[in-house]
Amino acid sequence: MRATSSVIVGRVAETGLLSSALDTASRRSGCAVFFVGDAGIGKSRLAGECAYRAYERGMPVLRGRATSTGLVVPFRPLIEALSSRFRAAGTPTDPELDPYRPALARLVPEWRRGSSPGYPETVVELAEALLRLLSVLGQEHGCVILLEDLHDSDTETIAVVEYVIDNVADLPVLLLGTLRPEPGVALDLVRSAERRQVATVRELAPLGDADVREMTASCLEAAPDEVPQATHERLAGRAGGNPYLVEVLLADLLDSGQLRRAGGRWEEHVNPDASVPTGVVRSWSRRLDRFDEPVRELLLCAATLGNRFSVTVLQTVTGFDDRTLFSHLRSAVEANIITPDGADPDRYTFRHALTAEALVASLAPAERAATARRAALSLAAADHQLGDEQRQLMATLQLAGGDRHGAARQFADVGRRMLAAGASGSAVILLERARSLAHESDLRSITESLAVSHAEAGELDTALALTAELPPVPSRSDASEQRGETHIRIAWAAVMAERVDEAAGQIRTARSVLGTAVRPEQEAALDVVDGHLALLPGHEGHGRQGSAQDAARRAAAVAEERNLPVVACQAWQLLALLSRERGFDEADACLERMLAVSEQHALPVWRVEALVRLGANTFMRTGDPAGLETARTAAQSLGALVPTQTVDGLLAMNAVMRSEWDGAHEIIERSVAASARVRNLGAHRYLLLASATLAAHRGRRRDMDRAMARFRRAGGEESLLVPLQLGLCRAFAALLEEDREGALADLDASLAWEREHPSFFYLSGRYGLRPLLRILDGRDGRAELDAILASPGADLAWNQLFLGLADGVLHGRAGDADRAARSVGAAVADAAAFPLARHLGLRLVAGAALAEKWGEPVSWLRASEEYFYGAGIQPVAAACRAALRQAGASVGQHRGGWDRIPAQLRTSGVTPREYEVFVLLTERPGNQQIARRLSISPRTVEKHMASLLSKTGRTDRAALCEFSAECAAERD
Question: Comparing C-alpha atoms, which of 843, 775, 852 is closest to residue 812?
Fold first, then answer.
C-alpha cells in the first residue's frame, strides 16, 4: 500500500483562495498568489490542486519548478513551465505573438530554429514577451502559470516574476508561486509584493491533530476512527503537523510491519526491542536497507546529484548499462521514492526535496564525501563536453568531496560564460560563490569578473566597491591587461547609466593601470567610452565635441584593423552623432559604414541600431517614414523590444507632424505602456512627448497638459527632449490659440536651453518656426535668415517650410512681389506631407502679404480657414475669418457645424457659434480671452454666454464651465 493521501486536508481557506483566484483570472482580472511554508508542509499539493481545478475549467496550465541542487540555470522554472504546456498542446500560432517569438525562443525551444540569433534580450523584454504569451493563452478561459520552489530560483526568473506580478492585474492570468520562508531574493520579492498589495501571500501552518488523523485515514483508505490511537499519537507527535513527514513515518510503520491490517481493521504491533526511528533520516535509512545493494547505490548516487537528476549523468556516475539502470529506476518508482519528471524526459525527481536530503544525510560524512568525489571524477572523465549545468553540478560535487578550490574554478568559469551570454544576474551568484571558495591565487581575477557582472547587472555601486578592494597589479603584465579591461567595461556601464563622475573615474583608473604602453585596441575602446561620455551633460568635456570626433575616428580605424567589430560600431555610431553639425550626408556615411560592419560580422543588434538612425535621419530630411518602418521590421524580427519601441516613438512623432492623428494615437497606445513596463525610459519619454505634441497640434491644451504632466513625472524635463517640448509642442499649442507672443517665449526658452546643453536635434523651432516669427515681427532680417540657411538644421523638410515662408516675407518686404510669391509657393508645394504646418504657415504670412500687397493672401486665408475649421481648431479658423473680413473679402458661413454639437446640447438649441464658446470654457477663460481666440468682440461673447446659461439650465458661469469640462471628458 502507498502511504500517500489522495485528498488535501486542513487547507479549506487556501483552496477557497485558489477558487476565487481562478474565477477572477477567467474574467480577465489577473492576480498573483504565493504559498509560503517549510519543506513538506503541502505547497506542492496545493499547486497540484490548482492545476486540477484549472484543467476542469478548460484553462491552460504551465507548471515549472526551480532546481534544488544549487545549480544556477537562468530561467529554468520558466523554460520548464512553457515546455510542460507546449510539449503536449503545441506552440501557439497567434499573429499577436510574432514580435515576441524571437525573445520567447530563449524559453521555447520549438521557436529557436526560426529566430535570428545574436540579440541579447533583456530580462524585462523577456518578461514582457512572457506576459503577452500568457495573455494570448488565456484569452478564452484564462490561464495559470505555476512556479514552485522559487526559493531555489535564479535571479533572472525572480526578475521576470516581479514583472509579471506588477503587470498581471488586467490580464486573464493567475500566477501561483510556492517557496520556503528562507531569506533570499524570492522571499524579499513576495514580502514586497504583499506590502504593495499586488499579491496575496498565505503562510501554510502545520496540520492540527484532527487533520493528521484525517490524512492518516486517507492514506490507509479507512475512516478516521479506524486509525489506531497509538499510531495517531506517534504520527501527530513526531511529524509536527508536516504532511510529508506524516507520510514518511507512516510508510516506515507499514514497511516494517508495525502497522498492518488484520481482521478487517488496522492494528499497530510495536516491538519494544526494535529500533524505533526517531526522525526522517533514520526512517529513510531503514527503508534503504530493505533494497538490493545496486538499487540502494543508485538512490544514494541520485540523491547526491540533487532532488532532480539527469538519467544521463546518473548513468555516467554509476556506470550501469541501460537495461540495469532503468530496471533499478523502476524499482525506485514502484517504491514511491522517485518519479519521472514530466517536464523533461531525461530527468527523474524525488517525490519530495526532503527525501534526497534525508538519503544523503543517512550516509556517514566520510562515505558522503567519497560518493561526491567519485561522482565528480566520473563527470570529469565523461567523453562528452559538459554544459554549464553539468559543470556546476561537478563543482557542487567537488565541494561536497572537499575540493573547495577546484569547485571555485568551475563556478568561476561558468559564471564568466553566463556573463558573456548576458545573464549577469546568474553570473553574480556563481562568481560570488566562487569568490568565497577561491584560493588566493584565483581571487583577483574572480573579483574582477564579479565587479563587471555587478556593473552589467545595474549594480554599479557594488561594482565600484569591489574594484576599490582590488590589490595593485604589476605594470605591463597580463594582470594589468585584465584589470584595464575590467575598468573599461565598468566605465561603459556607467556611461549607459549616465553616471558621469563614476564613468570618468573608471576611465582614469584604466589609463593609469594600463600605463603608457596602451595597445591600440585598448586605446580605441577607451576613446569610444570617453567620446560618449563627452556628450553627457555634467561632464567637463561636454560641448567639446571636436576632440571627441578625432578620437572616435581613430578608434573606428583601429577597431576595424584589429577586428573589433563591436568597438567599430560604437565608434561609427558616435561619429554619426557628432557629424550632424556638418550635415546629414556625413552622418549618413558614418551610419552606412556602421551598417556594413554589423552585417559583415553578423551583429544584428548593431545592424538594427544603424537602420534606426538612418531611418530617423531620412525622416527628418524628407518627412518620409519608410526607413523607420524598415528599421522597425528588422527590430521586430529579432524580438528586440527596446529598439522597436524607440522606432515607435519616432514614427509617432512623424505621424503627428504629418497630421495623421489616428495613426499617431495608435502607435503611442501600442508602445507607451509597454515601454514603461520594460523601463525603456528614453523611448517612454519620447512617446509621452509625442502624445503631448499630438494634443498640442490638435489644439487640445487640456490633453496636452495631462500628457505633459506624465512626461514631467518620467523625468522628461531633465532630458535632452526639453527643446522639442518647448519648440515643437508648447509653441504650436500657443500658435493654435493665436498667441504669438507665447509661442515666441517658448521658442526663446528652447534656444536658451540648447545653448547651455549643446545637442544635435533640429526640430525645436530654432531652425524654422522661430526665424519666421521673428521676421514677421521685424526682429530679424536677411542676415539672420542666411545664417540659419547655412546650418544643417535647414536641411530638414519641416524647417524648410518655415524658412521658405520667411524668405517670401523678406522678399515681399523688399518690394519683390514675384520672388516673394515664388518662395511661398515653392515652400508650400514641398510641404505637402505636413498639412497643419503648411496651413498654419499660410495663416501666419497672410497678414504680411495683405499689408505689403504680394502673393494671394485671401486664397491662403480661405484654404487655412477651411482646414482649421474642419480640424476643429476654432481659434485659428476664427482668426482667418476675421482677417478675410478686414481684407474686404466675403466669408462663407459653415452651416454644417451642427454635427459637432453633442445631442444634449443640440436639442437644447445651442448653435455652432455658441458651441465654439462653450468648448473653450473648460479652461475657465475670461470674456476677453475668448474674444481674442475666436476673433469676435467681448460683447458678442457676453451674448453667447447668456444664451448658453439659458439653454443649458446652468445657474452661473462656474456651473457652465464645469458642464463644459464634463462634456470634454466625454469627448475624450
Answer: 852
